[in-house]
Amino acid sequence: MVLVVLVLYAFLGSMRTVLVPAVTVPVCIVSAFTVMSILGVSLNLLTLLALVLAIGLVVDDAIVVLENIYRRIEEGEPRLLAAYNGARQVGFAVIATTLVLIGVFVPIAFLEGNVGRLFSELGITLATTVAFSSLVALTLTPMMCSRLLRRAGSKNWATARIDDGFQKGRSAYARALDYCFAHKFIILLLFLSVSASIFGLMRAIPTELAPREDRGAFFIIARGPEGAGFEYMREQMKEVEDRAMYLVNETKEARVIIVRADGDNTGFSIVVLEPWSNRNRSADEIIEELRGKLASMTGVSVFINMRQGISATGGRDPVNFVVGGNTYEDLAQYRNILEEEAAKLPLIGVDTDYRETQPQLRVSIDRNRAADLGVSVATVGRTLETMLGGRRITTFIERGEEYDVILRADDADRRQPSDLTNIYVRSDTSGELIPLSSVIKIEEQAASATLNRYNRVRALTLTAQLADGYSLDQALSDLENIVRTNMPDVSSIDYKGESRELKEAGSAVFFTFAMAFLVVFLILAAQFESFIHPFVIMLTVPLAAAGGLLGLYLAGSSLNIYSQIGLVMLIGLAAKNGILIVEFANQLRDEGKEVREAIIEASMIRLRPILMTSISTVMGAVPLIIATGPGSASRLTIGVVIFSGVALSTILTLFMVPVFYDMLAKYTRSPGYEAARLQKQQAERERQAAGSDGGLSGAAGSPAE
């Protein structure tokens, strides 16, 4: 808010003038709170992010109206008349830009899945604040201008220098426009080059669901051998705790370490770090060091991960790659190939959920010998079930409570495979007890503890974490290539958890981008009553997208759900500048000026409001870029996209929109021309009707004479 006010003061040089658009911010935000309450939208991190972004947006409409009124007052019009005419002159542009921004934000509210539920509130909040900003700009702003604005007198040193600099820049801009009109081919080539750079930048920028955040806590998961019990895991987790306690006792970077040993072969630990301001290292740096200290443990496999906020999978590994097969024997082969090839990738803690590590006994019945001895297969099966697993044979009632009676061998009699030789079955023919070992063959083997399916298909899941600099999208792509190259007979490839959310969110956001682009184009086509004017305006979108991607690349950030939402927002933010130029050029054409003359004058007059609104939007994104602490990585990505996208698109729009308008506008008329034509035809129709009525009256009065 402070940065935006400073921008306004720098351009206008008067605190009375700055007060007009500054009032817009609290009015719009308070109004947005009312709508949010009605719609049941909560105040959370994403809606607060939307309100921060809105500060740079809601003043734009007020700036456009204020600047136009201010310019007319400087030209000598009385304040009241300047406020009236100035607001009317830019009213169309204000409404057009507002509808464009709402047309961009509304599709965000209809994103599906977990990501959609999160970002729908962001879209609703932004759309609401922008809608109220338009209302305030066309009502409150003209009224305040008619009371507060005055013709500028003497300026202080700072504002005088800024004004002189702006006038010199305006003259340089006029000369640059003349050069661009004389070298249209260069402008066209520059536009194509910038647009083509989008594809190269998208390939160069890593893709992930959300930027990795310092969450202030992380998890340690230990997995022991199959069959390991509580005592074994308790000892192993005690060693994990001992190796991690230096974070509490020595470096003072952790506040508490919570350790738990489960009853099976797994253990779990939570390391809660000190607040961000009380430690010098990030959580990732601490995790990397601790991972090295735990790597030498031989009794358990240890994995460390840090829960990320946007994913519904909690603290699970980001890589969840599912491979389907026809049989579990095939899955065992796939697992071996996957683990061997995945070891060559920058992955950490690679594991699968199909491991033949659980010892089992395979019992084979010699049917011929059993038949000779009079022992049926059913008898053998029932005996094994009863002695080893237990079978309910009856119930009894004690004090009104019914209890089951379970028949089973003592634990001491069923500990070893050799205990099966002590079990006897009765012959159905002779009635003698036959040793079970005489009719069965026992074979020890290993099998998986679980036989998993996914979407009704036999499947195994490979899980892993990502090394620094290795994106989730690249990891999934590499794993897919491994499967296609080495396992062509795999029945299916699928994803779970964060990997699945990345695939779904990526396609959903790009669909939203396309829908927002189409909605904005149709809105502009309806308002300008032409397809050429919207086409010229929408040429600014590739420029903004290239700027946003370039900012991500230079900042070393990723293409994630936050930056993708920022790219969607750039559609409306970039189109605003084009609307201001094209709409005013149409007004000048309605006054009888030629296309070239109209677009040059429109560009020169709209230069100051375009710079003011763009710099205000850019300054509104600066706090997101420089912020630190919880959630700063997510805010950084969307801030960088808006900052760089608006900055680059503004610079290029000031030259490319006039050139393309000059090239294409001669093929269409402005909406004002059609309105004037309609009024002319209506007036002629009324004159004809009046003449016809006069003729009839004269004819009716002749006999009376």
Describe the structure.
- The chain has 705 residues and is α+β, with helices and mostly antiparallel strands.
- Among the domains are: 1-151, Multidrug efflux transporter AcrB transmembrane domain (Multidrug efflux transporter AcrB transmembrane fold), CATH 1.20.1640; 184-211 and 501-565 and 667-683, Multidrug efflux transporter AcrB transmembrane fold, CATH 1.20.1640; 358-447, 2-Layer Sandwich (Multidrug efflux transporter AcrB TolC docking domain, DN and DC subdomains).
- Helix content is 62%, strand content 13%.
- It has helices at 2-12, 15-39, 45-74, 79-108, 113-138, 140-148, 157-182, 184-204, 230-244, 246-249, 283-294, 328-342, 367-373, 377-389, 472-486, 497-528, 532-538, 540-555, 561-590, 595-605, 607-626, 632-664, 671-701; strands at 217-223, 254-261, 266-273, 301-305, 319-324, 347-352, 358-365, 391-398, 401-407, 424-426, 433-435, 440-447, 453-454, 457-466, 492-495.
- The strands form 5 sheets. Strands 5, 6, 13, 14 and 15 form a 5-stranded antiparallel sheet that branches. A 4-stranded antiparallel sheet has the order 2-3-1-4, covered by helices on one side. It has a two-stranded antiparallel ribbon with strand order 7-12.
- α8 packs antiparallel against α22 and α19 (561-590) packs across α20 (595-605).
- The longest helix is centred in the last third of the chain and has 33 residues, at 632-664.
- The radius of gyration is 37 Å and the shape is elongated.
- The termini are far apart.
- The relative contact order is 0.12.
